[in-house]
Design a protein that fits this description.
single chain, alpha/beta, Nitrilase/N-carbamoyl-D-aminoacid amidohydrolase, four-stranded mixed sheet, 5 helices, 12 strands
Amino acid sequence: MTKFGVVQMNSGMNPDDNLEMLEGQLKHLREQGARLVLTPENSLVFGSKEDYEKHAEVMGHGPLQKKLSQLAFELGIWLVVGSFPIRNNDGTLSTTCLVYDAAGNLRASYEKLHMFDVDIADNHRSYRESDTFRAGDNLVLVDTPFGTIGLSVCYDIRFPQLYAALRQRGADIIVIPAAFTKVTGVAHWEILLRARAIETQCWVLAAAQCGSHQAAVKPMVIP
C-alpha cells in the first residue's frame, strides 16, 4: 500500500523557521513510509504583502526552492508544496503550488486561480488576496507513480467546475493545500472537501495551516 503524508503547519513570516519545522515533519513522515507529502498553503512564508515581496523567488531559482528540492531528493519523496511566492517576469507575484519528484526535480507548478477577495465577520473583516498576488489562468495536472494528480489551492475549493475539469482531464488524486480562516474553516472546510471528493470520485489530499497568524494575509485559527 502506498502511503501519503499530510503536513499541518503553523507557519510564520520567517522562511528559515518554517523550513526547520517542515524538515522535521518530512523526516518523521518518511520514517513512517510516506512516498508523497503535501504541505499547506503558505508553507514557507505566511505574512504580509511585504513578507511575500521580500522572500519571493523566480521560478526554479533561489535558496528556498533549492532547499525544497534537496529535501525531496534526500528523503526520496514526492513533495507537493502547497504554495510559494513566485516572482513573475512582469514583477507581479503568484501564489504557486510546486511539485518535486523523488529526485528533486521540479515536475509541475500551478498558480492559484481564484483569489480570496471576501468580507468575513471576524476581526480581520476584509481579505484581498489580489492586492498581493496575480491569479493564474491554467489547469495543471502532473503524472506521478501514484496516479495523475490535479493541483488546486485553498479558495479554489469553492469552484466545483475546476475539479470537474481536472477529473475530465484524467485526475486520479486532487490536492487542496489551504490556509482557511477560523470562521470559514469551521463552517465549510470539511464539507467542501467531502463534496469535491464525491463529485469527482477522486482521492482528495488536503493540508491546512493551524494556530493563530495575526500578521498574515489570511489569519488561520483552526485547531
